[in-house]
């Protein structure tokens, strides 16, 4: 019984969600291997080796894996699978793209977006945009899961060094080819890991007005989020979208400004510890789940709030 | 090129779902059903590819109970040419759906298969990736832009497709060789509405009904749903009257700032 955690990284740094995945499976009290697939990713290997509580880091460092495309990475993981009872990855776009492909190669199912691991084969996962929870048992010989980072504590990076083991399987890929990446630059904390998130909706009215959200975020050292309406209106790029189809966050403080609170949005933030809603419509559904609600014009409220925090 | 689209019948996204008190599932009796929103986007993209001269036939497929034919008719009204209903009353998990679709692909050899990235009921986000694996095809998941290279739809030699994907932290563009599998993200397009004349015409379009057995696929359940639970409700909050009061509460009661 050994668990394989697929590391998410950009060939330079280990993604924080990987630590959440290790933290999540550490409750199963099995030995844990972390798999790093990439190219010239020595810094990631070093970082991964220092994750507390793991046994080994498997390293598949090869030019073929430079862009971590699903086609050959899935095949590689499937070839390594025989030694593992569980294979898990973070429920990020990386993990969601990759793990179901591995599962089909192994002829097993996947438990997606797991929020609670109850036992070796039984988990809880949200369905219907988080309006219901399913307790599901896997009947497969291997359990594959993607893990929702906001539901678990991260494993720590320690001083220990896990054993590093090279994997010399170089699988080519003539099916897909990486063309380019456009990265959204941000100086602020990462949305899914931030302690405070300030989100704006359609009521902001323009891209320029979204600057008010940014000012408040900077005051509180928070990350910026958005509703789908704000993204579709072009106020901010879509990787800031919070909700069923965007990012799932569970910060200590979530401030929803000019967001009505459609169920798809609530699915992404209703596990925040404290929710504040600022909205001019006293009937907006967001007030049903907000701990503190303030009814009024956001253009009056926001500047005052920025000044007083 | 021939484009296949998979669609799923789900509880309408604007319905507030209710968990049954016995934990057996969510209430589906007398609840409005519709086509999964991501599938609508998939249908729209296929039709746009045909309108742009890249596709010559759009085929829609759905697996499930007899009532799925309503959603297939909707897709035909939106512009699909023909429909295939894989009729089964069994619970079809993502891997089973992928196997059913893979069997169809092997028979009919479409160059492109477009699916939604996830269905809003089970929220799995798996079928497109699994279908790609079973067929050994490339996958372009969470697509927000699709560009076909080469305008000659009859020339299938060496054709590829460029797909821009929505990934955490930005966008990523891949080039996939055809045949390929795509899954749609919300921003790929804005689906059209079906006009009344097209709804009438759709009734005459071909809709074939087949069984999983005919496709040689055994529907297997890899997972057992033990119980469906209602999420814990948040305790009702309070409304504050001023910014000063809000800041005071956040500082002194909630202690989060």
UniProtKB/TrEMBL annotation, chain A:
What SMART domains does the record tag this protein with? ETF
Keywords in alphabetical order: Electron transport, FAD, Flavoprotein, Transport
* Recorded superkingdom: Bacteria
**Protein's UniProt keywords contain Iron:** no
Domain named Electron transfer flavoprotein alpha/beta-subunit N-terminal: which ranges? Answer: 3-182
Membership in a protein family:
Belongs to the ETF alpha-subunit/FixB family.
Name of the protein in its database record:
FAD-binding protein
Q: Which organism is it from?
A: Photobacterium pectinilyticum
Automatic annotation (TrEMBL), chain B:
Q: Is Kinase among this UniProt entry's keywords? A: no
Q: Which domain of life is it from?
A: Bacteria
Q: Which residues form the Electron transfer flavoprotein alpha/beta-subunit N-terminal domain?
A: 23-219
Under InterPro entries, the record lists:
ET-Flavoprotein_bsu_CS (IPR000049), ETF_a/b_N (IPR014730), ETF_b (IPR012255), ETF_beta_N (IPR033948), Rossmann-like_a/b/a_fold (IPR014729)
Keywords annotated in UniProt: Electron transport, Transport
Q: Which family does it belong to?
A: Belongs to the ETF beta-subunit/FixA family.
Q: What is this protein called?
A: Electron transfer flavoprotein subunit beta
Source organism per entry reads Photobacterium pectinilyticum
